[in-house]
Amino acid sequence: MAKGTVKKEVTDADVKRKAVKLVVSHLVKKLPEDNFIGSESILNWIARFEELLEKQEFVISEYYDMRRELNDVIERTMDEELRFKFRDSWFSLGKALDKKAKIS
User: Fold this and answer.
1) pTM
2) Domain boundaries, given as residue ranges, for the chain
3) Is-contact 45 66, C-beta < 8 A?
């Protein structure tokens, strides 16, 4: 490490936020290009989640609430194949919220 360089301490919140952001970006990639029944619900959820990610503070309960809301959106999705893809993202979101920073 160069002289005078300070290594930023990575917190659990930083790790969780980065992992969650990755899950949501993968979810966006799973969306079909054409409209589908329920597309408005998932797009609204994604928009609200992106607003949450922009917040400076990391309140884990807000992220858990968003995960519950995603489950509701999934249940209202008519396309079975999309429902399975979204369910995978729901599961990944839970795993992302369980991540911890590595202790060095």
Assistant:
1) 0.83
2) 12-28+38-96
3) yes
